[in-house]
């Protein structure tokens, strides 16, 4: 355990050093929110990779793989599909060069769309941050059994709040470079070692059900799409991603970063699922059977040589911290840019903005911690968060870039419908009054259908947007 504690300690010290090193370079709102729009493609690749692969992959995706095998890649495939379209969006997003998604919504639609966008982002991103804290708490508990998972969450929340508050996007992006390299190398090295210790793939296949190695496994086609579509739509509308594009040095850097990002998540998501599948063959019973979301960290502790296991646990820990940083920082920028500066103190000095920004990080971090303490399933929480964002925001964000006829009224009704249906579907009312076959389905299809109907129908029934509204979103 001393070895694992040393590795975790070194990672914490490294991350803190990076944050403090960037602190002196943060002097303005743009420096804090979008790193002064100076990030090169190399940094963008790793910060995008680190922000995407967190507890959603390392806990929820791994839990799915432990239970169902390689069919869990349907969830990851949503991100892969989304990135193909993002390749064409990235240069347009950098050309627009604002700070947040609500900036985009107001410029293309209206102030009302901006406010509703802020609400949707706050609910989604604090929920995503909350299960990063759960993942970090699980790791702390595994390494130090005398510390409960709950206390572990509180410790991780403190780390995340401090790291994020220090230097904003600049510290987040440059920490992600170190974390991304560490996690990529470690996971790639761990897979063949773990597979060999399990007796090779033929032995893994002999131990596990045949469905673990089939395209859809034991899922129905509908269930596969319920995993794929929310992930795809979250990827397409992900505010954290757009903020990275807004932070890019140029449109060319943004486009190049997408290519590297696609290659990175294609490899890492597959490796993560493969590690969980091998772990499920090695550890069919015991603690990990009762808590399958811990399969990667548990396997690193009990299935790998100590030094490799310690580094892998450290890499998972770092990835969870990194993703929590990204998803905590993103809604904080909304409260600053879209509420404080927009409506409360438009003339606020850079010093005031930086101070309030850091206070918002603390507030949202505590809110995320409160959510994490009441969460039972990371996978359910992840899909709930993905669905709110996917149904409420992604359709209107894509329409801003690709459908000239989308109107402010259509966007407002779409955001409202997607949010309301998702929240309603998660309530007890649905399970009480709808047939079980319908009530047990994920919210993504009813929420997305309601959102799209409102977007298209209301847009076609209202006046066309002006050329001034369209200009920032059209190709040169």
Automatic annotation (TrEMBL):
<feature type="transmembrane region" description="Helical">
    <location>
        <begin position="6"/>
        <end position="23"/>
    </location>
</feature>
<dbReference type="GO" id="GO:0022857">
    <property type="term" value="F:transmembrane transporter activity"/>
</dbReference>
<feature type="transmembrane region" description="Helical">
    <location>
        <begin position="410"/>
        <end position="431"/>
    </location>
</feature>
<feature type="transmembrane region" description="Helical">
    <location>
        <begin position="382"/>
        <end position="403"/>
    </location>
</feature>
<feature type="transmembrane region" description="Helical">
    <location>
        <begin position="73"/>
        <end position="90"/>
    </location>
</feature>
<keyword id="KW-0812">Transmembrane</keyword>
<protein>
    <submittedName>
        <fullName>Na+/solute symporter</fullName>
    </submittedName>
</protein>
<keyword id="KW-1133">Transmembrane helix</keyword>
<feature type="transmembrane region" description="Helical">
    <location>
        <begin position="115"/>
        <end position="135"/>
    </location>
</feature>
<feature type="transmembrane region" description="Helical">
    <location>
        <begin position="219"/>
        <end position="237"/>
    </location>
</feature>
<feature type="transmembrane region" description="Helical">
    <location>
        <begin position="155"/>
        <end position="174"/>
    </location>
</feature>
<keyword id="KW-0813">Transport</keyword>
<feature type="transmembrane region" description="Helical">
    <location>
        <begin position="352"/>
        <end position="370"/>
    </location>
</feature>
<feature type="transmembrane region" description="Helical">
    <location>
        <begin position="258"/>
        <end position="283"/>
    </location>
</feature>
<comment type="similarity">
    <text>Belongs to the sodium:solute symporter (SSF) (TC 2.A.21) family.</text>
</comment>
<dbReference type="InterPro" id="IPR050277">
    <property type="entry name" value="Sodium:Solute_Symporter"/>
</dbReference>
<dbReference type="InterPro" id="IPR001734">
    <property type="entry name" value="Na/solute_symporter"/>
</dbReference>
<dbReference type="InterPro" id="IPR038377">
    <property type="entry name" value="Na/Glc_symporter_sf"/>
</dbReference>
<feature type="transmembrane region" description="Helical">
    <location>
        <begin position="181"/>
        <end position="199"/>
    </location>
</feature>
<dbReference type="GO" id="GO:0005886">
    <property type="term" value="C:plasma membrane"/>
</dbReference>
<dbReference type="Pfam" id="PF00474">
    <property type="entry name" value="SSF"/>
</dbReference>
<keyword id="KW-0472">Membrane</keyword>
<feature type="transmembrane region" description="Helical">
    <location>
        <begin position="443"/>
        <end position="461"/>
    </location>
</feature>
<feature type="transmembrane region" description="Helical">
    <location>
        <begin position="35"/>
        <end position="53"/>
    </location>
</feature>
<feature type="transmembrane region" description="Helical">
    <location>
        <begin position="295"/>
        <end position="318"/>
    </location>
</feature>
